[in-house]
Amino acid sequence: MLIELRKGMALHPCTFNAVIAPEKVMVSAINNNIDLQRFLFLYVSGNYSRLLSSIDRSSKNFEVRRAFTAHQLFTILKEVSHTVLLLEHDSTLFDGAEDMIPHIAGMLEDIGRESLVILYTPSIDRTFSVPMRQADHIIEITPADDTIGNALYRRSRSLRTSENRPYAQRTLEV
Description:
- The protein is 28% helix and 28% strand.
- The radius of gyration is 16 Å and the shape is globular.
- It folds into two domains: 3-49 and 60-135, P-loop containing nucleotide triphosphate hydrolases (Rossmann fold, 3-Layer(aba) Sandwich), CATH 3.40.50; 145-174, no CATH class.
- By secondary structure, it is of the alpha/beta class.
- Mean pLDDT is 85; it is low at 147-167.
């Protein structure tokens, strides 16, 4: 079971992945993967969600949980027994509970030994950077109008003039 973020870029089972990408990239990856219907999928969001209203939830195996505090998130993660865990990062969960961030990161790493774990955010912040360091893969997909993205896009176009790439991509395997 794979989740393809872009053509040729897939997330594999038994890995913990930190993904920084535009919302439409993540929504497309989830909605266009018909294999997800066969697996237990847990979507966890914080106080608000950017993705949930756009995700097709017709599968009987799609479960949604919401955490309003870091302690609630910790409890949800202790009970995970799903094939895929998508955690949409919400920095407000850690207001006044910054000491929980390393514990949450360790739990995500542990869950990633048996499941596909995706820690998702559209932009990096301080509370995302701690669990991101423990991820097996860090994937960043930036919009093409981004300054760095434009430089990468121009460089890739000069190397491959026949390819049209709407996003720049940076991947770091740890």
